[in-house]
Amino acid sequence: MPIRRDKRDRYVEVEVGVPPEPLWVRCEACGELVFRRKLQENQYICPRCGAYFFLSARERIASLADPDSFQEFSTPSICEDPLGFSDQLPYKERVHRARQETGLFEAVLAGSARIGGIPVILAAMDFRFIGGSMGVGVGEILRTAMELAAQERKPFVLVVSSGGARVQEGVLSLLQMVKVVAAREALAQAAVPYIAILTYPSTGGVLASIGSIADVTIAEEGALIGFAGPRVIEQTTGERLPPGFQTAKFAQEHGMVDAVVPRAKLREELLRALSVLVEGG
Amino acid sequence: MTDEEHLRILEEKAAELRRLAQENGLDLSAELAILEQKIAELKRTVCEGLSAWGRVQLARRPDRPSGLSFAQALCDAFYELRGDRAISDDPALRGGVAKLAGKRIAILFHQRGMTPEEQRQARFGMASAQGYWKAKRIMEIAARLKLPLLTLINTPGAYPGVQAEAHNIAGAIACCIWQMLRHPGPTVAVILGEGGSGGAVALAAADRVLMLENATYSVISPEGAASILWKDAKFAPQAAENLKLTARDLWALGVVDEVIPEPPGGAHTDLQKTVAAVREAVIHHFSELSRLSLDELLRLRYNRYRHVGSAGAPN
Ligand SMILES: [Zn+2]
Known about the structure:
The complex is a heterodimer of chains A (281) and B (315). Chain A is of the alpha/beta class and 281 residues long. Chain A has 9 helices and 12 strands. Helix content of chain A is 33%, strand content 20%. Chain A has helices at residues 36-41, 57-64, 91-102, 136-152, 170-189, 204-207, 230-237, 248-253, 266-277, and strands at 3-5, 11-13, 24-26, 33-35, 71-72, 108-115, 118-125, 156-162, 194-203, 216-220, 225-226, 259-261. Chain B is an alpha/beta fold and 315 residues long. Chain B has 14 helices and 8 strands. The complex binds zinc ion.
C-alpha cells in the first residue's frame, strides 16, 4: 500500500491491489497514474510529487545492500498461532494469506549482507505482512539475527516498518519486546554496533523496544515515529495534534534520531555511519 | 437466578440478621455463621467461574487496592524517590527504596489513584514518559546499590498523549525493559490488576512474574482488540477470551510463575489477606533467587526471554 500525507499533514493509506501487480499505480497524493516500473526506478517515490510509497522488505534490502550480497537466513521454528486466536478470520488464515501476498515467511526479512563492502547483518520489516507486526516469528528472526551479529562481530542494521506488537499472539507478542531487547543486550556485550532506520511506520511495541535503543538512529523522510497512533491519542485524550506531529522532523527536533534522510540518500548515510563505526571501515 | 444475584440476596439477608441481632439483642450467631459460610462458598464459585471479561472488570475495579497501599502494607519502611531529573514527576508511576522483611529493596509501582482528584492526576495509572524515565532512574539506583528490584503492575497502558510522545515515551519504555534485563540482582514483578501492554511490560522483564488471581496481562485492551479486529468494541468479551489474558491462562502458557490467590470475592474485599499472600510469595521468590550467583541469574533471565514462543520452548 502506498501512503501519502494529505494537505492537513495526515497519512492516508491507499489500496493498490495484490499480485498480479498492476502496471500502473495511482499516486493518491497528486492523482498521477505512475507506471510501476518508473516508480520502481524512482525507489517508490512519486516522480511527480515526491510522495513516499511503502517499500517491501526485499526492495528495501535491495536498495541498501551491495548487489547480490544479501544471503537470507533460514526460517525459524516457532509455535504458529500459539493462542488458537480467531476473530473475523482465523489467525492461521491471516498468516497464510500474508505469506502468499508477500512471499515472506514473516513480517521481517533478515540475512547477512555487505554495504559498501562492509559485512553486516541486515533485517528489514515489511508493513504488508499484517502491518509489520511483531509476534513470535518476528521476535525469533530478530533475536537470531542479533545473536549472530554479536557472535560474528558484524554490525546489525534494522529497518523498522511496523505498527507494533501482533494482537493475535497476545502476551507472547508483548514478550517479544523483552526478547529483542535481551538480544540487543547481547550485541552490547559483544561491543557490536547497532543501527536502526526508522521508516513509515515505526510505532507501538516495536518502537518501544528494539526501535528506540540503537547506537545510531536514522529516520527516513516520510517516516511516522511514535508510541501511540495519532487516532488513539486523539480519541483517548481529545488533544489536537500539532502540525508535523510524529514526523521524522518531529522526532529529530525532540532528540530521538541522529539524522533525517531522503530515501535516495539512505544507503549513502548508512555507509557513512558504518565506515566510522567499523574498525578499518 | 445467577450466582451473582443469589450472592446479593444472601448478603442482604445476612445484613438484616445482623441488624435484627443488634436491635433486639438476639443471639443469631449460629444462623449467621451458616449464612456466612454459604456466602463464602458462593463467592468462591462466582470467582472461579468468572469469564475472562468478568476478570477484566474485577481487575479494573476502582476500589481494588492501589499500588501505594500494597507498597506500604508489604514493606516495613518505604522512602519515596520523586522525579525523573529531566522533565517532572509522574504521580502515575512511583517508587523508591524500601525494606521488605528487614532487607533492602528498590520498589516501583503504578498508582491509579483512589480519590477522583488523585485519579485525574494519575490519569488512572496511565504513566507518561516522565514516569518511565523516573522508573529507569530508580532501576539504575537499584543497580548501583545492588538492591533486589520489586515491581507492582497495575495500569491500563502507557499514556497516549502529545507530551508523552514529545518526551519519547517509547524510548523510556524500551530503556526500562533494557535496564531490568541488565539488573545485577534478583527482580520480581507482580501484576496486581491490569497489566496493560507496553506500560506493563516496561516493569515486567523480571526473573519471576507473579499475578494475582483476578489480574490480567495483555498486549492490548479487549476493547482495543475488538475495535481493530472485529471493527466493533462490543466484541470486547470475545476478544478478552481470545487474548488469553487471565492469570491462569498465562500460567498455563508459562508466562507467569505463580498465581497468587485472592480472598473470595476479590482483592478489594480484604486488603490485609491479599497483601499477606503477595508478601509471602514475593519473599519466597526473592529468597529462591538470592541463592543464585549473578552469572547464573543473568543467564537464566536471558534464557527465559530468548525462548518465548519458539517451538519446543518450555512454554
Ligand atoms: Zn504523486
